[in-house]
Amino acid sequence: MDVGSGLTKATDGDRRELLASVAVRARSDGRYGGDQAKPISWRDGERWLVAEDAIAFGEPQAYSNTCSKEWAGSDGWRALLYAILGRLGVSGRTTLVTGVPMAWYHELAEPLRKALVGHHRFHHGATLVEVELKPQVVPQSVGALYYHTGKLGDLPAKLANVDCGTYTSGFSAIYRDRPIINACGGIALGTSVIAAGLAEYLKREYHYQTDLWTYHELLQSGTVEVRGRKVSIKPALRDLTLLLVRPLLETLERSWPNRDEMVVYVGGGGADLFLPAIRHLIPHAQKMDGGIWSVAEGMYLLATVRQE
Ligand SMILES: Nc1ncnc2c1ncn2[C@@H]1O[C@H](COP(=O)(O)OP(=O)(O)OP(=O)(O)O)[C@@H](O)[C@H]1O
Ligand SMILES: [Mg+2]
Question: Could you read off the pLDDT of 59-109 as tens digits, one per residue?
Fold first, then answer.
């Protein structure tokens, strides 16, 4: 399971589950949409709503902050974990591989593993779920790299990747199977920065305003319909991205002095958007398989190899 700051992705090898990473503590008296919602609860007298339920019934100012170092393992994060386990129909002994941003891996991984190991009992809607978790915590960007390279027979000696997410971009480098700590890190810059830039641009140029989800869709489609007229925003997006991605390029320039000898993959939901800008610094950077799924699928592969 990959709980991103924007999207939560999970797979059990057969099925994929995707949830918006939105969590909110429910009002104690609330009945939600005639019981259409599935509140999550693991403590007496306290319920959480996630994803569509949180968006439909929660107050935006009460949403858990997903863009913080404290996000992994927080109550909102746990509510999303339980919602995913509930949706996948997991019960009993379960191996769970999840991740934290590369930048804080050494600080956060072991505390998170300890917080997750063992018995969990929670309600997912009306269903009581009991699981015994055997957790492993990996750096998110390594998960992605593992997915991409797990299928290659012969690994390049120096391999690196950038995982471009919603609020962060993580990167890692591996030389002959060993992570190189100085070449791994991350910064608080993702597609949300481009979405904000696009919002300003559309307001200024077209007097057009919409909601956050739509801005993110526009980043993918490159076309906006302004009061019935279709307008291509691809050139504007390219210019905006070149400008706004600069802090990431500066970080990569510093962290990867030897980038010319590495094979570099770019993944995550921001890959298509960021790749042209990254190629200004690293002309040989390639797109990674899997899009938003590469981290979660890599974690699944790690879970299966470590079981054997
Ligand atoms: N199929 C898709 N569905 C939704 N969003 C997508 C899709 N493809 C690309 N995106 C874009 O990618 C972003 C999500 O990317 P990703 O899932 O890698 O981020 P994340 O893991 O939530 O964030 P972070 O890694 O910063 O915590 C969305 O905000 C959107 O801009
Ligand atoms: Mg991510």
Answer: 889 999 998 889 999 999 999 999 999 999 999 999 999 999 877 888 999
Asked if residue 181 belongs to a domain, the reply is no
In a domain, 173, yes or no: no
* Residue 290 CB less than 6 A away from ligand 1: no
125 with 18, same domain? yes
What residues does 3 pair with on adjacent strands?
8
Structural domain for 55, as ranges:
2-138+297-307
Q: Look up the pTM and report it.
A: 0.90
Of 207, 223, 241, the domain-final residue:
241
Q: Are 215 and 198 in contact (CB under 8 A)?
A: yes
Q: Which of 292, 293, 295 to mutate to test the pocket of ligand 1 (most atoms within 8 A of CB)?
A: 292
Measure 9 CA to ligand 2 centroid, in angstroms.
Answer: 9
Instruction: Assess contact for 183 and 173: CB atoms under 8 A.
Output: yes
Domain count, the chain: 2
Pair 114, 15 in one domain: yes
Whether residue 134 is found in the same domain as residue 227: no
User: Do both 134 and 37 map to the same domain?
Assistant: yes
CA of 7 to the centre of ligand 2 (A): 8
CA 29 vs. chain centroid, Å, equals: 32
Interatomic CA distance for residues 291 and 148, integer angstroms? 11
* Position 142 pLDDT exceeds 60: yes
CA 298 to ligand 2 centroid distance, Å: 12
What confidence score (pLDDT) does residue 17 get? 97
Distance CA 88, CA 275 (A): 33
